[in-house]
Amino acid sequence: MTRHRGFALLGALVAVVALVCGVIMAGYGLLDSGSRANAGGSGADGSGDPRTRGRTPVGTAAPASADNWTGTWAAAPAGAEPGAPVGYPGRSIRNVVHTSIGGTSVRITLSNLYSPAPLLIGGASVAVGEGGGGPEAVAGTMRQLSFGRRASVTIPPGGQIVSDPVALRVPYDGDLLVTLHTPRAGGPVTYHRHALQTSYLADGDRTRDLDASAYTPSRRVWRYLTAVDVLNREARGAVVAFGDSITDGVGSGYEANRRWPDVLAARLRDQHIGVLNEGIGGNRVLSDASSQRNGASGLDRFRRDVLDRAGAKVVVIDLGINDILRGRETDPARITAGLRELAQRAKARGLRVIGSTLTPFGAHRGYNALTESVRDRVNEEIRSGRVFDEVVDFDKAVRDPYAPDRIRPVYDSGDGLHPSDAGYRVMGRYLSLRLVEDRAPAQL
Question: Quick one: which of 363, 341, 346 has its CA closest to 305?
């Protein structure tokens, strides 16, 4: 009897082991088929090739996992850099960017959006910066980047490319150095004009340099680089700040990372939520301003700069002032209709949408009774809940209680339109974390 029971027990254990192995193999099969599905296809937008599509598609607002990429930094391409009609042939460009969250691996996105000519990247690298906005790298952190396992890559006119991932311990709230070598002339440089952060140039291929001896300060812009993503087991996704110069941080201090999205990033760091700043100075909801280096319209760039961002779960939309001040739009219904369309697109992709009221500009040269009337009516519609499901009242946060059409003097950078560091700090703290952290699905 004892021997029979032993055989029975052994048989049962074998059956259990076989069942577990079957489940594991099935799981691998599902993962493999999912990978093939993501790698396949050849849509018109190039989404079938992970090396040429804009971002890894984000079809749902499901929580990020160890297998998902999450954005830690981003900057929207705003136009073609003046004074660089053929790029920087024979030189190395070192962009300094500041992370919101860290990770164990990193990848970058490069854009040639505003060039009619192909762009040859002869080599690229990423390293942890020493800090303070300088071009010095921390010893032991320099990593060479590849593209489809090749050290060089050509980005077609109007295209963009994602690098292969590379293992690197990326810090939270730290500097990264992304260096590109462009060996020959290309077309105009796709850039972000209001970086508030110095970039650096060097002669020759200096992508592997740790020290700064070969580099000289250049303009406060970001060139070609539009996104940095990390792998982070604890990441819960990313918040995308989508707006104009007030989101871009114009009026804030240089090399300081004090824009309102930076303040929000500091508040969300312990929750392992990335924050991506997709503001463009001078940007509008309705009309293209690329020729002024203020970017495509919000409606045109929303997919590229929000929906296709890695790990995007929430979008905060603060856009519309420039439609009034620069686009001379006098019909508030057209602006709110455009904002409503952005919100609907985001919700259709499973993103939570938070919309902002338009901040005061009563001391700005563009102020008059008509422009103020349009702003007031846009804000009235936003506060009613008929544009966005959730609202952050940035107008209320920074306005002067004694002159509501103006920014409170202590929050004014000096031009009557853009907040100071103090104003951006108030805005970054005013946004309720409940709206960002709430895990309930968006209402479709």
Answer: 346
Sheet holding 390-392, edge to edge: 274-279, 238-243, 312-318, 352-356, 390-392
| Cβ(215)–Cβ(202) below 8 Å | yes
Nearest Cα to Cα of residue 275 among 260, 285, 265, 286: 265
pLDDT averaged per 10 residues, the chain (length 444): 42 41 37 32 33 33 56 98 98 98 98 98 98 96 98 98 98 98 98 98 98 97 98 96 98 97 98 98 98 97 98 98 97 98 98 98 97 98 97 98 98 98 98 80 43
| Helix (H), strand (E) at residue 35 | helix 2-39
d(CA 327, CA 321): 9
**Strand, helix or coil at 274?**
strand
Contact 324, 283 (CB under 8 A): no
64: region left, alpha or beta (phi > 0 left; psi from -120 to 50 alpha): beta
Tokens 């193999």 locate to 25
Residue 31, phi then psi, degrees to nearest 5:
-60, -45
**CB of 97 within 8 A of CB of 225?**
yes
Given this structure, which CATH class describes domain 236-438? alpha beta
Give dist(CA 340, CA 336) in Å, integer. 6
**Domain residue limits, the chain:** 66-233, 236-438
CA 108 to chain centre: 11
Q: How far is CA 345 from CA 226, 288, 341, in A?
A: 22, 19, 6
pTM of the entire predicted model: 0.85
Beta pairing partners, 58: none
